[in-house]
Amino acid sequence: HRLTFEPSVDWLSGEVVNVSLVSAEDILGNPLQDAPISWHYTIDMTGPYFWDPLPADGETLATIPDFITIRICDSLSPLSTTDFSMYINGVTYEASSPHLSLVIDTTTDGHCGMMIFDRMGYPIYPDPSGAVHIAVVASDMPTLCDGNIQDFGWTFYVASDTGGVVTRVDSCPPVMSYW
Prior knowledge:
Blueprint: E1 16-21, E2 37-42, E3 49-54, E4 60-61, E5 67-73, E6 79-88, E7 91-94, E8 100-104, E9 112-118, E10 131-140, E11 149-158
Parallel strand pairs: 4-11
Antiparallel strand pairs: 1-2, 3-5, 5-9, 6-7, 6-10, 8-9, 10-11
């Protein structure tokens, strides 16, 4: 028992597909009642997009901020509130971490939100050049298929009091090669 689409088409993300089932029989040969049956759905093959990272990409700060944030939106499906993470200089913070949250904007039917990392006093160490590398991953929640995953990365810098970059004598987490 298979549903075949005619004509066979490679649909694009965002395209609305209108479907009509014009006839069918059950295993006893009884015809479909109230035919045709029509419905539609939207093709979603793209993940969320990211913008407005804070601190901004390339920005130099005097200290590590208490919060690192980025805005996330998906044009077709709500954001997944369980499938997101942030990587900071190679350290992973999953959705279950007390440091990481995704605050959904309720005015967008769940399509937009802000990922927030709260240090809660936890130290974050720049690499020897003063760089703090951030990568985020998030997914949407389409109705009929698995989530579409998207990632984004940026770097900000921390300067020392003397105007140079911060350096540390002890080792820090390895710089991730995620992106």
